[in-house]
Every structure is written in C-alpha cells, then in structure tokens.
Write a structure and sequence with these properties.
Pathway: Quinol/quinone metabolism; menaquinone biosynthesis. It contains 12 helices and 11 strands.
Length: about 290
C-alpha cells in the first residue's frame, strides 16, 4: 500500500471519512512526558489519520490498564512486559531508550552514595525502580530500605537519604540539585549497553499492520518537529527550549535496534536474578 494513500498529507487535518475502513476505534494509554511527545506527535496533532482513542496516564497505569483489557495498546514500562507472561507483542522499531546519560531518571541524594540507608521512590514507573535496585546492589553494593512517596523532592529528602525521581520532574530538579546519579549513564557504564525504558505494546491481535505503520509514521513526523515540540514545551521559559531539544536528540534514543534488544534482555536477566520478575521473557514483535 502507498504510504501517501494511508497517511495522506501531513499538513492538513485528517477527515474521519477518509480513515481506512479496516479500522475500529481502539483505546490507547500513553504517557504525556516530554520524551513521549515525538512518538505521539502525529497522533496528537491530527497530522495522521487514525482511530485511536488516546488516553493519558502515568507509566505504571498504562501497563495496568493494558493488563486488565481496558485498552488495546499502551506505552508501557519495559519491566511490565516481563510481567505480562507473554500476553503482549511489541511495536517494532520504536522505544524510549538511552545509551548513556538519560537526564530524566535520576537518584538525588543528600550525602555520599555509599552512606545511603533509605531511598524514597517515585513509583510512577516500576522499570525505573527495578533499574535503581539493580544498580545499587550490583554496582554500588548497597541494600538500602525503600519507602514510597509522592514525587516531591524536598519532602522525599527530608524523610530519606536519597530519592528516585523520573520524567519531567527529574529534568527540572537536576539543574537545581548537583548531587544526583543519572541512572541511564550508570547502567551503560556498568553493562556497555543501552537501556530501554518503555515501548508500545498490545495484545497479540490488537493491531493491524496498517496501525503499526501509523505508530511508526507518527514518530517519523515527531522526529521532524523536535524544535517545535521543544518550543511548545518551553512556553513561559522560552530560553529553555534548546535544553529540551538537546534532551530529545542527545539523551533519548527512539530506535529499537539489536543493541536496544540486547540491553533490554540484560535488564531482564538482572531483574530475574534479583527476584524482581518471575521469568525472563522472549521478545515478540508485531509485523510491520
């Protein structure tokens, strides 16, 4: 099928009347962090015809709603794929990953990391929690106590020696708090591999080949509009848009190549060894 026939012009609002007749409305749970915006840009801006019902959630809720059958597709934390017990397939070629510093997943601390005894957790993404536990034990050889708290850094650091914060809040805090570990950087330093934080996943028969192409095309459009995404995100602080652009282009990796697959499987092996998941899953992808 010609892509132009499927997607039409990206400069015009799509008409529902022109949507492919093979589609039915499918519920999609996704995260509205800055790093997800390139993936969903074409969908959110109406630059590509689709019949996805887009619903914003935090990462852990995306996975739970997919597991419960409330949605057909979710942008899920990678640890949740292992917990799905083979029930899901992955949309190929798309991920939220890093190969070095990620900037938006960080452990902030009050003093020397070796003296950390209690860590406050932002549990919005269980992948980041698992990654932190792996790094603290395997790289820094410490086993602190963990407590769950809302992601308010000042309050977290009053109650604990360190605090895990993810997403846009971590981007904000890292410019204010020099004492922090970048978990993406620490993972790549330890393993030499990328780290995969999240990806599109759905039940086996949830997506058609055309719908997989739509998701890939949405990112293609988003990747061509990084400056616009960054400027929109910096509303009120226009001087910050370059920081956001650099984050999206230098810290975040959106491909899901063999290197990312290897990094993901390494993560699953560590998580299994530490009892964070019950089995090491095979990776199953939709056809594109």
């Amino acid at each position: 099928m010609e892509l132009n026939n499927l997607f039409g012009s990206t400069s015009q609002e799509p008409s529902n009347e022109d949507a492919p007749t093979s589609y039915k409305v499918k519920n999609v749970s996704y995260v509205s962090y800055l790093n997800t915006k390139p993936l969903v840009y074409g969908l959110e801006k109406g630059l590509i015809r689709h019949e996805f019902n887009m619903q914003k959630d935090v990462p852990s809720v995306c996975a739970e709603r997919l597991l419960q059958g409330e949605v057909e597709l979710g942008l899920v934390p990678s640890i949740e794929y292992a917990r799905s017990k083979g029930a899901w397939k992955i949309v190929p070629n798309l991920a939220i990953a890093s190969n070095g510093p990620v900037a938006s997943v960080a452990l902030f601390f009050n003093q020397d990391i070796k003296r950390i005894e209690k860590v406050a957790l932002d549990t919005s993404s269980r992948t980041s929690v698992a990654l932190l536990k792996i790094l603290l034990l395997e790289k820094f050889e410490i086993e602190p106590e963990f407590v769950v708290m809302p992601p308010n850094l000042d309050e977290m650091l009053k109650r604990a020696d360190a605090a895990l914060v993810i997403g846009d809040r971590a981007l904000q805090y890292q410019t204010e708090r020099p004492n922090h570990l970048d978990l993406g950087e620490e993972w790549t330093d330890m393993t030499g591999l990328p780290f995969v934080y999240a990806f599109w996943a759905g039940h086996d028969l949830s997506l058609t080949g055309e719908e997989v192409e739509i998701l890939q095309k949405s990112y293609e459009i988003g990747g061509q509009n990084i400056e616009k995404i960054s400027r929109e995100y910096a509303v009120g602080k226009p001087q910050d848009w370059i920081f956001y652009r650099d984050y999206l282009t230098q810290n975040i990796v959106y491909k899901f190549s063999e290197d990312e697959k290897e990094g993901l499987m390494e993560f699953y092996h560590y998580a299994f060894y530490l009892g964070l998941i019950e089995h090491i899953p095979e990776l199953h992808f939709y056809e594109d």
